[in-house]
Amino acid sequence: LYGDKKYEILKNTHLLLLNSKFEAQPLVVIEALIFECVVILSKIEMLEEFKRFSNIKFFTDQKLSEIILVESLKDKNNLKINSNIAKKIFNFDRFSKKIINTFKTENDIN
Questions:
Q1: Which 3 state secondary structure label does DSSP give 43?
Q2: What is the pTM of this model?
């Protein structure tokens, strides 16, 4: 799924569930954050970095309940704040600069 069709689906989505045993950097989670979704993830190492976002929940959280999900979905201000943070953290320019800096040699830095 990509392009306009993907955009339309994400625009009309409020909740993303990602139940997985293995992940690298799941783009769908970043996209869901940007589109102001509440996200429920498997508690695996590669997804732990997303816990900084308050609209990210984990299946293993014993406090996770229908009430918490509904409150999270209703809190549009918090969803917007997390979306803006995700846009800053996961933007292309920032990513490309990190890649370039990773491969710079010592001579390039001096």
A1: coil
A2: 0.79
Dump pLDDT digits (tens) for 22-42: 877 788 999 999 999 999 999
Strand partners, 40: 17, 57
Helix, strand, or coil (residue 15): strand
Among residues 95, 98, 79, 102, the alpha carbon closest in space to that of 14 is found at: 79
Which position has the token pair 């209703």?
74
Q: What distance in Å separates the CA atoms of residue 25 and residue 3, rounded to the nearest whole number?
A: 20
The dihedrals phi and psi of 43, each to the nearest 5 degrees, come to -90, 85
Q: Would you tell me the crossing angle of helices 27-34 and 76-89 to the nearest 10 degrees?
A: 130
The Cβ of residue 69 has, within 10 Å, a number of other Cβ atoms equal to: 15
Write the DSSP symbol of residue 53.
Answer: S
| 83 vs 87: CA distance, rounded Å | 6
Token pair in block for residue 82: 């997390």
